[in-house]
Amino acid sequence: MPDSVPTAPAGWHPDPSGQQQLRYWDGQRWTDHVSPYPVAEQTAPDAAPAAAPAAAPAPKNPGQKVMTRATWILLAATLLIVGGAAGFVGWTVVSANAAATSEAPDVVDGFLAAATADEPGWTQYASPGYIAISGSATPLFGDARAAEVLDLSIEYDRRGILYGTNGTAGYESPSGADTAKAVVDMTYTFTVDGTPQTATSTREIWLTRPYYYGDDVPSAFKPGETPTAIGPWRVTGAASAAAYEGEVVATTSFEPARLDQACYTSDVVLSQMSEIARTEGVLAAVCLSGGTSTSFDDGIDIDALAAGFPVVGQAAPLTDLMGWHNDPNTPAPLEQYLISSGGTDYVFVLASTGVGGELTTDSERRIILISKAETR
Fold it and tell me: What's the pTM value of the predicted model, to 2 decimals?
């Protein structure tokens, strides 16, 4: 067991205050940045009535609870607060009644199969909070239009799954666990300036499940108490893998000449572009794929994009459409960011460059594509 166990990844999560909004968790603490949940589509007045839900199966001992958005809001907030504030909490095995077996591997496998193929079925395996922050994009895959332009394809190899409590995971047994993570080796194939590229990266897929103790209020696992019901595992996010996971793969064939620019993180790249666009009214050649060029999708008005470019920086954090934890020390092969300008949503795709074929802390981020976001 390592001396420290990682907590839940940075990103937009349900607000721990209980308000119906998302709040940004930076990996260590909650920030002041909030965002509303996407507005659900309204059913037309003349639409056919919804089918009655199927009868629920008889509960086991402990029983299974049907998950709702309210349940996941409370659960995710609880796990993030406890995990972020307290770090690793010792975990002990409880009785067989407390879910000694786990369907987490099936949930992860179903999620990976759907997400890497850009199939909507991934939502069956994800928490409502994760679905909400993903918008029209698919985690791990990103925006459909951008993927089409890049000729993107994804392969993966899932390793084992580790379990734990309170936002940590480091044990092989699921008994008494409310948190889990799967270590996955991802292989991305994509095209940059007409040249096929391949990159690999080891990532973690995180899951949580709620426990119930005599009422309908979901909570984390409580040592020494026997739950009356346990909810299903659901995927809540993805992050870079820790070095102690064993052999961590991080390679890429994308290795253009290095630039004399500050291209070390996506935040820096996009904030530079934002500042120049807003002060000079032009879309500057900052950290582009080959140094002087990048790919623009059909129908993009560069002048209009520059004229309406929003503020980007710490005051306005962006969420990666591919769902990664943006860690400069363990760069993701590809990142995608949604930027709205002049009433149009654009997707900026950045690729990490190789250093001797490896993704390292010295990898640069290059903009390889700017496209219009797919609307679903």
Answer: 0.74
